[in-house]
Amino acid sequence: MHLNVFTDNPTVPIDVKDRSVSELMEGMLKTGFQGRKLAESVQAWHNMLKEKNMTVLMGLSGAMVPAGMRRIISYMIRERMIDCLVSTGANLFHDSHEALGKKHYVGSHLVDDENLFEHGVDRIYDVFAVEEEFRTADNLIADFAEEIGEISCSSREFMYLLGKELAKRGAAEDSIIVSAYRHNIPIFVPALSDSSIGIGLTIARRRGLKLEIDR
């Protein structure tokens, strides 16, 4: 194998100059590590958007909503940049929490967790939240599940119904769940029980509700 196989595509350092975000992404295709991976992801997505009869599925994991990415996902839904969202339950719980006017707070990963616990504060890496507000959201979901009644549904159907309920309660239009409801974008949550939404459903079940949710 000739050496040129490995050396025919040199890296190009990023210039410091005025440019659009898309131009920056194009330039990062010639860099390395995560910068290039980000640019390659944008390029793949751009290619998908140009295709006809293409279904764009987006996977959402990690603590993206507490980290402040909620409005970006919502924008992508409203602008039909994605056709289907597959998410962790945690991100959607945090989305409903913020959609109803509650907050996450700039914190630190260096804080003593025992001290936070004594003050009723939860930590998601370097983001804080008030535990009592989370419990209020848990019970809101439990009450909502009881209103639905004893049915069997998919996670997609449940998230649609929850979006409808949040919209009725005056939730923010930039909510991921509300945007998906209003624009008929399906949300699937394969592990819905592994989140605070699952805690709310567990509360409802302990009250006697028989609600079955599959993938």
Summary keywords:
215 residues; alpha/beta; 3-stranded parallel β-sheet; 3-stranded antiparallel β-sheet; 10 helices; globular
Characterise this structure.
It is built from ten helices and eight strands. The mean pLDDT is about 95. With about 220 residues, the chain is of the alpha/beta class. The protein has a three-stranded parallel β-sheet. It has a three-stranded antiparallel β-sheet with strand order 3-5-4. A two-stranded parallel ribbon has the order 6-8. The longest helix has 18 residues, at about 35-50. About 50% of the residues lie in helices and about 10% in strands. It is globular.
Give a quick summary of the entry.
With 215 residues, the chain is an alpha/beta fold. Helix content is 49%, strand content 12%.
Secondary structure elements and their pairing?
Elements: H1 4-7, H2 21-28, H3 33-50, E1 57-60, H4 70-78, E2 84-87, H5 89-99, E3 105-106, H6 113-118, E4 121-124, E5 127-130, H7 131-148, E6 152-154, H8 155-168, H9 176-182, E7 187-188, H10 196-206, E8 212-214
Parallel strand pairs: 1-2, 2-7, 6-8
Antiparallel strand pairs: 3-5, 4-5
Helix pairs in contact: 2-3, 4-9, 7-10, 8-9
Rg result: 21 Å
Separation, N- and C-terminal Cα atoms: 48 Å
Largest sheet: 3 strands, parallel
Mean pLDDT level:
93
Strand order of the largest sheet: 1-2-7
How many extended strands? 8
What portion of residues is helical?
40-55%
- Supply the number of helical segments: 10
From the helix content, strand content and strand pairing, which structural class follows? Answer: alpha/beta
Give the strand content.
5-15%
Q: Spans of 5+ residues with little confidence (pLDDT < 50)?
A: none
Inertia-based shape = globular
- Please write the string of helix (H) and strand (E) elements: HHHEHEHEHEEHEHHEHE
